[in-house]
Structure formats: C-alpha cells, structure tokens
Design brief:
Order of helices and strands: HHEHEEEHHHHHHEEHEEHEEEEEEH
Oligomer: single chain
Distance between the termini: 43 Å
Shape: globular
Strand order of the largest sheet: 3-2-14-13-12-9
Structural class: alpha+beta
Largest sheet: 6 strands, antiparallel
C-alpha cells in the first residue's frame, strides 16, 4: 500500500500543482509520438476542438453469438406512451430508442438508417462501463476494493500527494486532478491527455490541483485512467477485459474502442462504439444488482455504491448520474460552477432513478423499482424545443399499467 498523504496547506497544493504541470510540459517524449501529437492537435484546432474521427480503433469482442432480447407480446406500458416516446426520439435527432421492462423489450426504434447491429459512438456512456469494469475486477480479486490506492497500480505516484487518490475517486470524479476545460495551447495537459499517442504518460503526469476526495471535478482524463488501472491490475488489455469479462457474460455484442495508437492505451472514458443493445444490457446488469444469467459479475452491494452521491456532488455516483435532490438544471461541472446545464422540467417519477448520461444527451435511464430501462442514443438534439432529461422516463413511468397490488416507485420530491 502506498504511503499516507502528507498534510499540505493550500499554498502547498498550489505549489505541487505548478511543479507537476512544469514536469509534464518539459518531459522528453518520443519524436515520432510528438510529431503525431502535433499533427492531431492541428487537426483538432481546425475542427473547432472536435474530434471528427476516432483513430485508431481496436476491436472489442463481445458475445460470440448474441441473441436478441425477447420482445413483449403485450407491453405493460400504454401504446400511446410508447408511440410518443418514438416520436420524441425522432424529433430529438436520435439514432436509437429502446424501452425495456420486466425482462422484455416493449418498443425498439432506429433512425437515420441505423439498425440493431449498428455500432454507435458512446461518448460518455463509456464512463458507467468503466465503473462496471472496476466492479468486475474487484469481483475477480484483481482490485481489493474501491478504497484501494491508485498508486498500487501506478507506482509512479508512490510517495507523492497523488498516492491519496483512491480507485473510487477516479469513478466519482473527486480525484483532485485537473477538471475538464478547453485550451488552445498545444502543451496544455488537457490536450495532451486527450490526443497524445503516449496517453499513459500524459495521464500519469496529469496535474493534481486539489487534495483527493475534497472536490468534484468532472474530467475525461480521470475516467481514462481507469484503463491504466484495469490493465495493470489484470494484465489484460482494456478492450479484452471489457469484451471477455463483461460483454460476453451478459450476451452483448462487441464493437471497437478508441486507442491512443496501435497497441496503445484505450480511452476508457469516451467513445467506444457498440450496438445500442449492448449499452441496454449493461444497464440491465445494474438493474439486476450485478447478476447476469444467474452469475454474479459485480460484488454484492457494488451497484448500491455506484448510485450513491457524494457531499461534493449529490447527483453523481460512480460513473452514473442519480436523481438526488431535484434541480431544474444540472450540469456536468461541480454544482456551484457555471456552464451548460441540462433541463429537468419536472422531478423524476422515481426518486431512485439513475442514468448513464453522455454528450449529445445520450441517456440510458434505469428505474429498478419499475424494472424499466430506457435508452436514447443519437446526435445533438435541436436547440428548440430544448432537450428535457425528465421527459422520456416520466412519460413511460407515468403510463405503466400496473398490476393490482404492485409496488410503485416513489417520486422525486419537488423540494
């Protein structure tokens, strides 16, 4: 186990962050990697800071013979509500909509020429998958617990303040590492940790700016560190671990994942491509408390920890967003910080609802109380009418034809 974190003043933490940043910027790099990085950065700037093509990609082999999920002959949700959900998804520039309840698909629709076999870009839907990967590694005995020091897997951090970063801090975004931001500077660590061919080094050198566990700071780089942890903990490539240890056991089709270069590190926090049903099956795994096909894949109680918020952000658990206290608008940055906020026009009809939530309003809602999973994947919705994160789950939860005596979810309080 790594040594305990030394006590530091605020000035001490600022000084440490400056030293770490300087170290990263002045570190020698492979000339070929550096040339490729500069080429990628120029392309990134030409495209307004947006990656237009994830390259290279590495195969993620899922179930060898995936079978479609069963379809409900008589849906438990009112047909007009299912029709309205499809119409909403179509208006919102979607590529896929799937409504699953009580073990069966109640409605499935694809748009823009996609179908159930199409591989769709996950964006930050990959972050819940990275949390599932950690849980799987714990169940397999490769990681001791969520409270294990990340320095056990990144020995470069031993004896530094980063040794206080726990595995759970990478998942709940309380690592203390630099949060997501934009910069036109090619030597800024946010860019290095995004498109560097030597991604492992860029992530290990990523600057620490707060004491671990004290601040919420959403960042892709923090989620990408999960790939380093999984690969060093298991001895398997991240793509292989996800494919063999997670997707295959849940019967999910595979796809591809973005890597820094051929044989390089996978981006665990972004941009795996999988058919929509694979993300649906991941949500079903969580709805079933980490059990699939009668086999426990995640430790007992792990899902309960995933859907628990923190004092720093009561709406974020381990890679997933949770209902928490109702707010009309919720952003990805820390609650007190400015920035884009996604609309929640009404409280959720299930106070314990949680969701995968990625860029372009890609969402997978999970109501364990109603045994309901709703998936919407696609491109950016139109500016008007504005996307409403509460619309789809409330539409469907509010139109379930409950059996007599069935226990219903409790709504999220308005205040």
């Amino acid at each position: 186990m790594a040594s305990a974190q030394p006590t530091r003043t605020r000035r001490g933490w600022t000084a440490f962050a400056a030293v770490a940043l300087l170290s990263m910027l002045t570190a020698a790099s492979d000339p070929d990697d550096e040339a490729l990085y500069r080429e990628r950065f120029a392309t990134l700037m030409q495209n307004g800071g947006v990656i237009l093509k994830y390259d290279p990609m590495e195969p993620v082999v899922g179930s060898p013979a995936p079978q479609p999920l069963p379809v409900a002959a008589a849906p438990s949700i009112a047909p007009q509500a299912l029709d309205a959900a499809v119409e909403f998804a179509a208006r919102m520039n979607s590529t896929a909509l799937i409504v699953w309840r009580n073990g069966k698909i109640e409605r499935e629709a694809y748009f823009k020429g996609r179908d159930r076999s199409s591989e769709l870009v996950s964006k930050s839907l990959s972050k819940p998958l990275s949390a599932i990967a950690v849980g799987r590694a714990i169940e397999l005995g490769k990681i001791k617990s969520l409270d294990q020091s990340v320095a056990d897997f990144i020995p470069e951090w031993r004896g530094t303040p980063k040794a206080a970063i726990l595995v759970r801090h990478l998942l709940d975004m309380r690592s203390g590492l630099l949060e997501q931001m934009v910069s036109p500077d090619p030597d800024h660590p946010i860019n290095r940790a995004y498109i560097s061919p030597n991604l492992t080094k860029a992530l290990i050198d990523y600057p620490l700016i707060h004491p671990p566990g004290t601040q919420y700071g959403y960042a892709n780089a923090v989620a990408d560190l999960i790939a380093v942890v999984i690969e060093r903990a298991t001895g398997e490539r991240y793509a292989d671990f996800v494919g063999k240890r997670i997707l295959a056991p849940i019967g999910a089709p595979g796809g591809q994942i973005w890597v820094s270069k051929p044989g390089g590190l996978a981006h665990a926090g972004c941009c795996m491509t999988l058919p929509a049903e694979s993300f649906l099956r991941l949500a079903i795994l969580l709805a079933d408390d980490g059990v699939a096909g009668g086999k426990r894949l995640l430790p007992r109680g792990y899902v309960a920890q995933m859907v628990r918020g923190t004092p720093q952000n009561p709406h974020y658990g381990l890679g997933v967003w949770i209902a928490g206290p109702y707010v009309q608008r919720r952003g990805f940055a820390a609650p007190e910080k400015p920035g884009p906020k996604v609309l929640h026009a009404a409280p959720y009809l299930d106070r314990d609802l949680f969701l995968f939530d990625g860029n372009s309003n890609q969402t997978v809602y999970v109501s364990r109380a109603a045994r309901l999973v709703v998936l919407r994947m696609g491109d950016n919705p139109p500016a008007q009418p504005e996307w409403d994160n509460s619309y789809l789950p409330n539409l469907l939860l509010g139109n379930i034809r409950w059996k007599a005596g069935a226990r219903r979810p409790l709504p999220q309080p308005a205040q």
